[in-house]
Amino acid sequence: SIIGQSIKMPPSRLDGLYRSLLLTKFFCKGWGKPENIERLFEFRKIISNRAACSQLIPRDYPVEITREEVQSDCKILEGKFITPLEIYMPGLVPDVAQQAHFQVVLPLKWNDERYKPICIHLAGTGDHYFWKRRNMIAKPLLKEANLGAIILENPFYGLRKPKEQRASSLQNVSDIFVMGGCLVLESLVLLNWCERNGLGPLGITGLSMGGHMASLAATNWPKPLVLVPCLSWSTASSVFTEGVMSHSINWDVLETQYFADGNFRERLSKMVTVVDDAFVAGKQFIKNFDQSVEELRQDIDEAKDLVCGVATVDVNLTVIREATPELTDEAQKEQQQQQEEEERKQLKSRIHINRTN
Predict the structure, then answer these.
(1) How many angstroms separate the first and last alpha carbons of the chain?
(2) What are the Cα distances from residue 186, in Å, to 54, 56, 190?
(3) Which portions of the sequence form the region Disordered (predicted)?
């Protein structure tokens, strides 16, 4: 399958060489404080539950618009708010990252005032500030589809980057979990803000790491939401352990910390061993994916046979139409008349046979 082929592809040698030549390394300070990791993994149980997570963010969560600018082709707003993760997990988010900064790109005029579509754009690895996503993604979509955009600055990036951090290289393993927790909750804040301001339909997207974070955020929104994760997967673990990012991690520091303290090693091993319903369901889904698709294909074939009386071999799984669409009043009346006419013909036929006998 395509999925299987993509997993087995060897990492790019050029990317590996590029990462190995960079002077900055990820996780140069190690794992982070064990108590912080423990708190994060406990909080994960809450934000991985949609019902519980959506209740963490009130609809009127305070958001401040700090600047408005009308340009020749669009209207740009800038705003900020306190990241909810700092409220629920105080002390985990660096001071400079506690203010979530975002930029909104809106059309000068909506094509239809009833529909004001807008999409949140989350950053990929190394995507600092707003200009790249604004000029390369948001503005082209605005021009082509009248689609607005919200560009959220990642924690540990751009305006939210700690001074001692070099470029995009997070200093602790725990920082990446802090980043994820921030983005999930901050996305919910922005989705609520959109609804309060009459914007929608709503969507969320991201490239690479941004796509993964967008997927996490989307699962915690309890309403219809368009999700477009680009060049991402359900986990980044293989990228860090086997892929191109493995060349940019300070493995010596992580190994030294891990084996230096037996108590720390035991606590960390227990924390990262994730066995819950969602994880097991995901493994089961991938294991039986091909069989599930084949069963779905058979179900569609059988449904079409029942409705049309003709078997179809090639079924397009991307478009599954209703097998029994509702009929209009006129169509129902016409169908009923046809049935009555057919019954009259059958009755006349039986009468003719009886008379002949």
Answers:
(1) 65
(2) 11, 11, 6
(3) 327-357
Q: Where do the domains of the chain lie?
A: 24-274, 284-339
| Nearest to 168, CA basis, from 179, 184, 183, 182 | 179
Q: 191 CB contacts (<8 Å, ≥6 apart)?
A: 120, 202, 204, 221, 225
User: What span, in angstroms and rounded, lies between the C-alpha atoms of 288 and 214?
Assistant: 25
Outline where DSSP puts E strands in 11-54: none
Angle between helices 34-47 and 262-272 (to 10 degrees): 10
222 preceded by a cis bond (ω within 30 of 0): no
pLDDT digits (tens, 9 = 90+) for 147-161: 999 999 999 999 899
Place of tokens 């004001």: 116
- 20-43 pLDDT tens trace: 555 568 888 888 888 888 888 888
Instruction: For residues 176 and 328, give the distance between their C-alpha atoms in angstroms, rounded to a whole number.
Output: 55
Which one, of 30, 76, 37, lies nearest residue 273 by Cα? Answer: 37
Token pair for residue 122?
A: 């989350």
Greatest C-alpha distance within the chain: 104
Three-class SS state of 302: helix
User: Do residues 153 and 101 lie in contact, with contact meaning Cβ atoms separated by under 8 Å?
Assistant: yes
Compute the chain's Rg from CA coordinates: 27
347 φ, ψ (degrees, to nearest 5): -65, -45
Please tell me the distance from the alpha carbon of residue 193 to that of residue 173, in angstroms, as a whole number. 31
Give strand ranges (E) for 210-347. 226-230
What are the φ and ψ backbone dihedral angles of 203, each rounded to 5 degrees?
A: -145, 165
Cα separation values, 14 from 20, 24, 32, Å: 10, 17, 31
pTM of the full structure: 0.71
Measured between alpha carbons, how far is 198 from 183 in angstroms, rounded to an integer? 22
